[in-house]
Design goal:
73 residues, mainly alpha, 74% helix
Length: 73
């Protein structure tokens, strides 16, 4: 687990100062959101917590929210 924290800290140290220096706030926001999701999923994997399947979320979005279904042949 310590390796996970070190790797993620290293990536933050490399990327974030440049984004702040160039005042790229939208990129920093997008990076932070995606980075937080990736870190949470990685931490769940390292701690042997079942990682949710992204296919279930996509199926819910496509079928239930958008109402698109494939014809059953």
């Amino acid at each position: 687990m310590i390796y996970l924290l070190l790797i993620y800290a290293f990536i933050i140290i490399i990327n974030v100062p440049g984004l702040i220096k160039r005042k790229e706030w939208r990129e920093l926001t997008a990076f932070s959101i995606l980075y937080a999701i990736a870190f949470a999923l990685s931490l769940m994997y390292v701690l042997d917590i079942p990682v949710p399947s992204p296919m279930k979320g996509l199926k819910h979005l496509i079928v239930d929210i958008l109402g698109i279904e494939y014809p059953q042949g």
